[in-house]
Amino acid sequence: MKTPGRLWAAAAVLLIVGCGPDTSQKSGGSASSQPETDVDLKSLTGTVKVDGSSTVYLVTEKVAAVFQKASKVKVTVGISGTGGGFKKFCRGEIDVADASRPILKAEMDAAKEAGIEYIELPVCFDALTVAVNPANPLDSITVAELKKMWEPEALGKVTRWNQVNPAWPDAELTLYGAGTDSGTFDYFTEAICGKAKSSRGDYGANENDNVIVQGISGNKHALGYIPFAYYVTNKSKLKALAVDWEKGAGPVLPSLENVLAAKYNPLSRPLFIYVNRKAAERPEVKAFVEFYLKNAHDLAEKVKYLPLPEKAYEMGRARFAKLQTGSGFGGEAEIGLPVEEILSREPKH
Amino acid sequence: MPARSIHPGAPGAAPSRVDALADASNLMLGPGRRYWKDWVVEKGLLLAALSSVAVTTGIVLILLYESVPFFRKVSLWSFLTDTMWTPNFPVNPHFGILPLVAGTVVTTTVALAVALPVGTMIAIYLSEYAPFALREVLKPILELLSAVPTVVYGYFALLFVTPLLQKFLPNLPLQSMLSAGIVMGIMIIPYVSSLSEDAMRSVPMLLREGAYALGANKMITSIKVVYPAALSGIGAAYILGISRAIGETMIVAVAAGSQPNFTLDPQQPAATITAYIVQVCMGDLPRGEIGYQSIFAAGLTLFLMTLGFNILGHYLRKRFREAY
Amino acid sequence: MIDTYRLIARRRLQDSVFNVLGIVCMLLGVVTLAALLFDLAVTGWTRIDRTFLTSFPDPEAAEAGVYSAWVGSLLLMLVTISLAVPLGVAAGVYLEEYARKNWLTTIIEINIANLAGVPSIIYGLLALGLLVYQFHLGQTIVVGGITLAFLVLPIVIVSTREALRAIPRGIREAAYALGATPWQVIKDHLLPYSAGGIATGTIIALSRAIGETAPLLTVGALAFIAFLPDSPLQSRFPFVNFHWLNSDFTCLPIQMFNWVDRPENPENDFHRNAAAAGLVLIIMTLSLNGAAIYIRYRLRKRLKW
Q1: What would be the CATH architecture of the domain defined by B98-323?
Q2: Does the structure show a pLDDT above 60 at B130?
Q3: ipTM of the modeled complex
Q4: Which residue, of A88, A157, B193, C16, has the fewest CB within 10 Å?
């Protein structure tokens, strides 16, 4: 019994036609001429690509999960790190970049070269927590001591606790921290060592904050820095050290109150999303970002992040509605800014 | 009975004129038509067979293509001798592959310490001692050990084996080469035992009977007669195990950690070459950057190591097949 | 004089001890397998229910499910089979029926033997460097499927060859004697008889591919996929489309890996989810393996030579 040649021909035709362009993709559905106030989420289709910081990931993941229950839009969220996310953003590969630090000068230039404009939107706060094993006798640490532990010159030399502070026990110092593509890494190194990315290389670097938590909780002599949310969800396994900025205020523990009052320095930082301006014109992206800003306060709290004051979200929504592009930071992070200051900055390019 | 004529319309031809024409047309277009179709098919199949060569070529080419820029920036000497591997650090990066190689070697050694004795013992048992029915039942069960997905083994190592080990070694961290190595060894047991058993069963009964005739028991025969006789096949089995252990990724990524650590102490966490590659790929490094190229340099090292072992194993297997 | 009786008794004891040792080693393997399955089942079995299988991943462990993961796995298998089986069977047929003993054949055979031993992550690097970047195919299902197809190609080729070798020469010779060309022999006689063996090999290849994580992680399967790719079926002509090939994807092993990597947390117990995902994966793998064993068994009974 031979397979009819006609069957093969039919299959070939199906194959060819099926591969042709599909006009129903990315058209945003039927709600084309609706007013902007309340777009019917259920009728939207399309894809929104988000990538970037593993810190902001927790919030974005929650927002995306809730958003996708309310609409048919597909949202993909990656964790390539702030640096990796910006690289993809500046290549136009993603619509929204999660960032745990403001956009850097080099990235601003790359975006300008590629003709990509971005809208900078703070979404919540994070208090970078210095965590140790609960069995560790320490309760607080100064920025100078942290610097001694983490600066590039410590590579291979500072390997025991008492080398940092003679009053500390003589035990092996095991360090854990973010990987080099992480905004957490950039921010911590700038806040502690004075210059972004300047850090010793011989520590347990990992893009995955969960692994850092596991490392610290499994080792009595470990120390590491992680986003606040990862500390709070693992409170039973970690101990947060109060950080002393040595500007007279004394050691301060990370908490929502301390962050909003601008007391937890230098390790409290705003977290951002950067939206591609051209992508923001697509209904599904617009709806997603508006949903994000509208619900960030509640959802951030749910994942144990520190929400901004309500006024800040209003200003963010206004900025997005105007599609105001540019960054208020001039290409580098600034340490110790209160949140109202951040948002009242006029965005520049 | 007249032979059926092939000439159309010839007298005495039994089939009708239409059939005769059809036969004739088949032949009139000549043998060329049928064999032309066959030639196309043969060449098509040859192309399919060459796809395997294409894949190997692709692998070698892409590994070299991305490693060459890496080696222009990093000297081969420092690559092979530096004891720190921190290629992603903008300030003072180090490019020594030794920590990753150490991680691979230590986990492989622990795995082999488990798999080789146990696997060989199982092979001896199955080929010399076990009754036929038992063997038919046990072999598929053993094969199941190698069918379990490696990420499940990683889970098992992290969440079952490590707590178990921590009862005996309280200082054992959550991720360690010991835990990963032990589980990897268990995964490799079927590879070692299956091939060794095949080799041992191919040893002619005559050799065994000679030993028995001289008064040896099964144990002495197995150790002193069968094992040495099947040595090339058993060697091939060992090499297969080594090769599999070196290339394993998920078990070590989950249970041994992804922080490069130049140490020979299995109680510590460390990254193997494979775990490093995976960890980098989960982030994002664009092409052209040294971090991206470093995974290809690491991959090239891994490929050369397994290639060497595969060639050795292949040679040993050929020898064992030809001996009998 | 040698005390013969003592010698024999000692030798017998040695044998018994060795016998026991062998059984113990066997048990080590079997018990470990049982412990693994038992541990997974105890932790994860209660987690598997209809909602788990039809929910998407979520930051809350109790709400998270494997919907996108197992659909992704199935779609990947679809692409893998469509590539690996035609290519592998064709290559196997060539090597068994057409190839002459020349240098080209030797090179091909060496290549296949070598590819079978290459670590799976190297295939991932090949896919990353070549398919994702050079060919600009992106991190999509089609790239994942091609990677896995390359990975299992040697398995399909080897089992095709074994299946063809099992057919007695008499069949081929009879067909040739009647004037058949090699292709006709293959098409009408050899392929139908070896179909069972080839099917077995395909299933084994599939069960290997379904559990592979490393090459797909290298290609870049995303962390959070809470949607299914476009359905291949649609209501307009031609009723099938291939856009799902271009979709981002996740799969069961990657989902399990993602969940295992999270720290131990009784409030948000992702490890339980990981165990459940692992169980689903093992059930799929073992069913495939079981199907292969069953087909092989039935085949041996049916063939009457």
Answers
A1: Orthogonal Bundle (1.10)
A2: yes
A3: 0.86
A4: A157
